[in-house]
Amino acid sequence: MKRRSFISRIGLGASAFIGGAGTIRADIPALPVYTYPNPGKFSEVLNRAGQFMVRLEILGVECVEPQQVLLEMQIPEKKLRRIGVYPFANHSPERQDNVFSFSVGKSFPYVFAIWIADPGPDTEISFLLNGKQMKFLLNELVNSKQLAFQQNGVQLSCNFLLDKEIGHFDPKSIGISPQEGAFSIAVMADPQGGDPTTPKAHPTRMKIHNAFIEDSVNRINDLNPKPAFTLVLGDVVDNQGEASHFEAMHRYLKNIQTPILYAIGNHETRYQAEFRPGYRMGEFNNFFSAQKAINGLEYLLYSFDLGEWHFIIWPDPLRAGFFETHPHYFDWLEEDLEQNKDKPTLFFQHVPAHPIGIDPLINYAESVVVKRMLLDRLATHGNVRFIFSGHVHIPVKASFKTAVAYQGMKMINLPAAGYRPRAFGEEELHGGPSQGVLIVEIQGNEARAYFKTVTEEVYPYPEKLPDFNEAAYPLWLNYKWQLDAGEEIKNGDFSAGLAHWHTRYVYQEDKAPSNQMEVKTFQDYKALYLHSTKRKYHIPGQDRLPQTINHLCQGILLDGKPRMIVLDYCLDKQSPSHTEAWAGGFVWLEGFQGSVKLLNMAYWVGKGTTQLTDRFTDQKEVPFLHFQLDDQLEYWQQARLNWLSDYQDQGLDISGLDRLLINLGTWHVNDGNSPGFGVYFSNIRLSDQLGESQVNQEKIKSMPNDKMWWMNKYEPFVHIAGEHRYIMSTDKKH
């Protein structure tokens, strides 16, 4: 009954949102133009403590291969307050006093931050870079915004850092009333609405989102007593942060009958946003404009106190280079947590720091090191009670199934307030819709959370959540080059189950799971069985993406001696007749020198996909090569892979590779009517007997294009009536 009533409201009462968009635009007020303050003089660069913050970024500039760096800071002790070291996707440095030794590649920078006490325009910053003396005055940096130095194929760039968008504020200043005893707060994740008439908008889906946003707002306004405030937890708007979308959302959200806070997500800025050269913050101007209009604040990262509790709002724009160009955010967070370590704390971030278990939430999330740096700081004092996130557009059922505790912190991913749910392969708890709001009820130093849908179903989150087993899923908080590795493949026959093989957390449906990974006895073999199929319960409006997550890996230490990989594989009974489906199995190999990936290749059974990526280690200069394994036979076959020979002549020096990652997996396009695909692997081993890559003594060939799937292959991928249509975007027109 509730669901019918809701649908009725969309069709009738919400006509201004779903019907034509013209009536929406007519009375949407323009928001005031905002420009992030650009320092014009020396004093405007200093932080609130009167210090000058300098950021150093080091990258290789000539070679893709890692370059050795010896960096010595030569700053007077009385001036040097501290040095922050941020390797990001690189190995940690060797350090002796203020001398750092490390290696760095061309794609993932090494970052340092330096806090200078009692600075003046003529304060000199001096350092040795690979033995060469380099120096500058702080005033030169202020005037130039960015300086760069090069030595021995390495570039060091430096710029100042600002903290104008960071702060702790008094909630009374924006109308949040002081609280004693019991109170509540409301959280809206991912409304993601806007003005459907904006160029390049997805008008159908945006109209749908807008209707759900209206009802989510109504659910908040129905609460009695009213929450102390409402937080919009990122993705306030759809698309790329266009001003017209913020203007439309301002009209909707200003109807909330509480003070409103904004967090930034990944749709408030351009997808190709740039944060260099210098300290470039103009990408956030539309967000700041909307935030200032809704509550007067101008913050990306901020905290405040209410009642006995401390609240922290963390920015997650999910843009390349953001945290590398804003490393001081982690230091501010560390200090804020230290200053408030005796207060129970709620932490809010747009992108989840705990695993969700479907694509695209591996690459479409923060990097391993950002998650690790964040969680290490949040767990330090034991006072962070909850970490709430959005971004996923998760159904209510999946929100409960993925909620975990990590070092005492409850981590919960919230269903969206406006956006349609992503496909998790099973029916919603109440049949849907999933949209709604989170309510956190606080009594003294205790808090409990529940989710209320737009159709008024109420789902309290349990007091106790299962602990996240970091050891069982090491890839969540480790790069592959950080995993344990040996000189030989261990348990290549799977006689010890999955021991020595590393897996990711993969979301499992309660019935008929779309991804299977288990060890079986098959035709006298003890073997790893992998199978992927389209997620079930495919209903209109779901947000779906191809799935490549069903794989495991093991690391091999390399000593420069060429060795082949030998393995046995067999398609399951149905798969030989399904090789025209957009699905398949793979042996994916990744080669590293230190932390730098210099080899990337896959051998495919069935169809292949370019979606098999790792954006946190892949480099554009390192090509991904694809090869074809025989897929026509339903019996065991032996593959001999001379991977080193197959990857020659790519213009790269791979003689220094010290680690090889072997990944075994299956994938599925997760769209259309493509059947599933299953494959067995066993007897994986290394061999000193070299030769060309073969299957059953037949030479392995490159993968033909007609067997590879990628987005926009034959025609542009578009939303059709709000739907993702991957197969239609892939098939040739006739």
From TrEMBL:
Domain Calcineurin-like phosphoesterase: 184-395
Coiled-coil residue windows: none
Pfam families: Metallophos
Record-level Gene Ontology MF annotations: hydrolase activity
The protein, known as: 3',5'-cyclic AMP phosphodiesterase CpdA
